Amino acid sequence: MSIKIVCFNKVSNEYRDLNEFYINKINKFINIELIEIKEINYGNPKEYMAKNEYNINERLNKFKNYDTYLLEINSTQIDSTKFSKIINNCIDTNSGNICFIIGPSDGYSESFKSKFKNQISFGKITFPHQLVRIILLEQIYRSFKIIKNQKYHK
């Protein structure tokens, strides 16, 4: 069982400590790995969007036995309890492997988004991608605390 997070660029210095903090906590429950892709953001926007999506797909080809979830601001909003149920369901009944995708700064094309039946949103507020990574890690950690019925601050 493992969790992969496909995201763009290395974690910046401002978020590094929190990133490591949550990864260390999550690793007590399940193996987690961040797959960082260098974002292409120069030239024609349609071309670099296509290149970034191609790079995501290249990584996903290695995770065929993973339940994949696209983080997409305009998809179904979920709360922490629902998120923990998604993780628990993947672990209990499916492959036991989960992959989350945090897209590039310019988002995804409609054709790319349409390939993913599993899409989730943490709300309509736009966050920097580095912060979304931390929010996702925190929610994964919180999910395991919920699943294990362990105390966690509210």
Automatic annotation (TrEMBL):
Enzyme class: transferase
Alphabetical keyword list: Cytoplasm, Methyltransferase, rRNA processing, S-adenosyl-L-methionine, Transferase
Cross-referenced Pfam families: SPOUT_MTase
Principal localisation: cytoplasm
GO cellular component, as recorded: cytoplasm
InterPro entries (UniProt xref): Alpha/beta_knot_MTases, RlmH-like, tRNA_m1G_MTases_N
Annotated localization: Cytoplasm
Binding-site residues for S-adenosyl-L-methionine, renumbered to this chain: L71, G103, F122, G123, K124, I125, T126, F127
GO MF term list: rRNA (pseudouridine-N3-)-methyltransferase activity
Enzyme Commission number(s) from the entry: 2.1.1.177
Reactions that this protein is recorded to catalyse: pseudouridine(1915) in 23S rRNA + S-adenosyl-L-methionine = N(3)-methylpseudouridine(1915) in 23S rRNA + S-adenosyl-L-homocysteine + H(+)
Cited SUPFAM superfamilies: alpha/beta knot
HAMAP family referenced in this protein's UniProt entry, alphabetically: 23SrRNA_methyltr_H
Primary role: Specifically methylates the pseudouridine at position 1915 (m3Psi1915) in 23S rRNA.
Family: Belongs to the RNA methyltransferase RlmH family.
UniProt-listed PANTHER family: METHYLTRANSFERASE (PTHR33603), RIBOSOMAL RNA LARGE SUBUNIT METHYLTRANSFERASE H (PTHR33603:SF1)
Subunit structure: Homodimer.
Name of the protein described by the UniProt record: Ribosomal RNA large subunit methyltransferase H
Organism: Spiroplasma corruscae
